[in-house]
Amino acid sequence: MVHQELEKVLKDVGFTDGESKVYLALLEIGESKVGPIIKSSRISRSKVYDILERLIHKNVVSKINKNGILFYQGLPPHALLNLVREKERQLKSEEDLLQNILPQLLSITPKQKVNIMVYEGFQGFKAMIDRTIEELSKEDTYLAMGISQTTEPMNRYARKIYESQKKKKFKARSIFDEQGAYKMKERKNRLHEMRLLPSGWNTPALFTVYKDVVGIHLGKEKSIMSIVIKNQEISKSFTAAFNAMWKIAKKA
């Protein structure tokens, strides 16, 4: 498997482009000072230290101080399995949390009808995107909070929402975390406002709001699950949460 394919796999399990390059460089050269890592990964000195610290936080890189000089080493590839298992545990925890709060969300407006639909897997994800595009109109604003890194097929299909703005003229506001920031350039248009969460704020779950529809999206591609709730009061609650997070996020 060539380097490019290895980088793609690493990005699919949650690495950024820079993290993939630096980790693969460390596996190749072994314990090293920063200089050889920069040369092998082709990542600038201004960025490599931050990337190394993120990899240490992921528990796939270690560092040691030898006579005042920092040396870094990529941990064995089996450490990646621990990273994936931790993500699975986190995803399960998020799902359990949502299952626990769903009754509370529904109890907010007991007199109103609440319609809930669940879309599972990549085909379900595409069906949900298509439904969203069909329902959006010029008077609407589409809100998305917690846009993070996803697989390229998911990213490509989700872009259809923003590509449809040219024809349907609805507005959009999106909040990205740092792992999803690479999507900002490709989704930029005059009807789309974007902001970025502070560094270190990662958002495994994506929340979307338009009209009286709230979407809660968890997982990636085959494992993705989208819970779509249609209720005016619940939509207002999530819109308020979005606006609060919008004030914290930085302008792109």
Structure description:
The protein contains 9 helices and 10 strands. With 252 residues, the protein is of the alpha+beta class. The chain folds into 2 domains: 3-76, Arc Repressor Mutant, subunit A (Orthogonal Bundle), CATH 1.10.10; 87-251, 2-Layer Sandwich (Endonuclease, Chain A). The strands form 2 sheets. Strands 3-9-8-7-4-5-6-10 form an 8-stranded mixed beta sheet. It has a two-stranded antiparallel ribbon with strand order 1-2. Helix 1 crosses helix 2 (17-29), helix 2 (17-29) packs across helix 3 (34-41) and helix 6 packs parallel to helix 7 (152-163). The longest helix has 30 residues, at 78-107. The relative contact order is 0.12.
Q: Terminal Cα separation, in Å? A: 36 Å
| Major sheet size, sense and barrel closure | 8 strands, mixed
State the helical fraction: 40-55%
Enumerate how many helices there are, as a single number.
Answer: 9
Give the strand tally.
10
Return the average pLDDT rounded to an integer: 86
**Tertiary shape:** elongated
- CATH superfamily descriptor of the largest domain: Endonuclease Chain A
- Poorly predicted runs are none
Features:
Arc Repressor Mutant, subunit A, 252 residues, alpha+beta, 48% helix, Endonuclease, Chain A, elongated, eight-stranded mixed sheet, two-stranded antiparallel ribbon, 10 strands
Task: Give a quick precis of the structure.
With 252 residues, the protein is an alpha+beta fold. The protein has nine helices and ten strands.
